[in-house]
Amino acid sequence: MNHMSSQGICYLVGAGPGDPGLVTLKAKKCIEKADVLVYDALASHKLLTWVKEGCEMIYAGKRAADHAIPQDQINSLIVEKTKEGKVVTRLKGGDPMMFGRGGEEAFELAEAGVKFEIVPGISSTIAGPAYAGIPVTHRDHCSQLTIFTGHEDPTKGQTSLDFEQLAKAPGTKVFVMGVSRLRAICEEFIKGGADPETLIALTRWATTGKHQTVQGNLTTIADIVEREKFKSPAVAVIGDVVREREAINWFEERPLFGKRIVVTRTREQAGGLSQRLEELGADVVELPTIRIEHPQDKVDFAQFVTDVHKYDWLVFTSPNGVEKFFEAFFATYEDARSLGGCRIAAIGPSTKAKIAEYRFAVDLLPEKYVAEGLLDAFKNESIEHQTILWVKAEETRDVIFDGLMEQGAIVDSCLAYRTVPETEDPTGAVARLEEDGADLITFTSGSTVEHFFKLGLDWPEGCEAACIGPVTGRAFRERSDAQMVESAQHDLDGLVETILARFAEKQG
User: Is 38 exposed, middle or buried, given 0-12, 13-18 or 19+ CB atoms closer than 10 A?
Assistant: First the structure.
C-alpha cells in the first residue's frame, strides 16, 4: 500500500471575506475533499454545502463574547484528526495568516510532524474597502499601507501598538476591530498627532448582502457609529483614499442593495434565483420550504417511463418533472432514441430549458405559461384519439388531465415526484427571518406558499411578497392579505424584473 495515500494532511484555508465568489478555487477543492471540516463563524454558509457526504463538520468559531472551542483545543483537534490519516480542512474567514491565528496552528502542525498546506484567502482588510469603493493605495494619495488589529484596548496601557508611530506613519491605515474600541482608537490617533479632520470609513459585513459603510473623520466617526447602531465585525480605513469612494462606490449602488429577500424554492433550485438577486445587490436568505422526493408508487412510475415510446405526446408542466423523468429514463435506456417518436410539450420557458439540458427539443410551448394556456395551445394540434403521457407531481390539480380528455385525447398521469415540507434548516434561515425580518419573500409555486405558511412564522412587518404568476398569486391571497406583486411573465426572468420594478417604484 502506498504510504503517502494513507497519510493525513491539514489545509489551513482562507474562506475569504464573505462573498462566496471571492473564495479561491483551491479553497473550494479543499472543502470538497475534506474528511473533517473545522470551521469558524463564516459570513456565508454556502461554503458548507460544498462538503462531500459523510464529512465530519466541527464548528470552532467564536463571536466576540462566545468562544466555542479554546484555541489550544483547536490546535490539538486538527493535529489529532490529521494523525488519523484524514484530510482536514481548517476554514478561517478572510486570510488564515491575517490576524487569524493561522500561524499558531501551522506551528502546532509542524511541531507534531504532520503534513499541512496554507491556502491564502482574500482578507477583509483589502476586500472591505474595495467593496466600499475605497482603494487602499492610490497614486494621488499614498504609496504606503499599514494594517493593524484594533481588538486590543488602547486605554488599558498593555497594548502592543504604538499609536504615536501609527499616527505619524504616512499613507493609508486599515484596521479590523470590535466597534466598541473605535472611540478610544480615534482618541489615541489624535493624541499621537493625527489631524482630527482625517477621513475614516467603516464597513461591516463587507462583501456580503449585509454590507454597510459609514464615513466621517477621527473626531466624528464614533458618534456616527453610535447613532447608526453600527456593530462589529467591521474594517476601518483611515486616510485620504476615502475621498475616492464618492466616485467609485460600485457595490452599494446596485439596484437591490441592502434589500433582504427570502427565496423559498427547494435547496437544489434556489441557486439560480438567489444568484440573480445577489448580483443585483440583495441580501438573500435561502429558506427552502419544500423538497422533492420520489413518488410513492415507484413501480408505476418506472412502467410509464419504460413505455414512453408508445405515446404520441409527452407533456411536462415543471422542471422537477423533467428532471425526475429523464433520470429514470436514462437509468432504463442507454440510447436517447428509445424515447421513440413522441412529441414534447412544455408549460413554460423554465420547463423548456430543463428539457434542453437533456438535448431534447420542445414541439409545443403555450403563449401563456399556465395550465389553461397549454390547453389552448393543444387546440391547434387536433389530438383526438392521440395518447398523451402527462408527467406531474402527485399533488397537482387535474385541470390539464380534464382539459386534454375533453379534447378527445387518451391521457395517462405519470406521477414522477411529490413535494414534501423541508424539515431541515442547516443555515439558520428561520431564526434569521424571525430576528431580522425581510423586505420581500419570493414564491415560485403554490406549494412553496402552502409550506411557508405551515412553518407558522409571523409575516415580517412591512414585508411584501413576489409571486411568479396567477396560480402562485392566488395561493398567496388565500393565506395572506400582505402587499403582493405578481409577475406577468411566469418565469424567473419575469419575477426578477417585477421585483426590480417594485423596489424602483417604492424608491421613486
Answer: buried
DSSP state of 386: -
Task: List, for residues 252-287, the tens digit of each pLDDT value.
Answer: 999 999 999 999 988 777 788 999 999 999 999 999
Categorise residue 447: left if φ over 0, alpha if ψ from -120 to 50, beta otherwise.
alpha
Residue 283 burial (CB count, 10 A): 22
Q: Do 123 and 95 meet the contact criterion of CB atoms below 8 Å apart? A: yes
**Mean pLDDT in residue range 351-375:** 94
Active site residues: 40, 62, 177
For residue 144, what is its C-alpha cell?
504606503
Domains, in order of start, for the chain? 8-122 (3.40.1010.10), 126-251 (3.30.950.10), 260-289+422-507 (3.40.50.10090), 293-420 (3.40.50.10090)
Distance in angstroms (rounded) separating the CA atoms of residues 172 and 237: 7
Cα–Cα distance for residue pair 490/497, rounded to 1 Å: 11
Kindly state the cell numbers that stand for 111.
Answer: 511541531
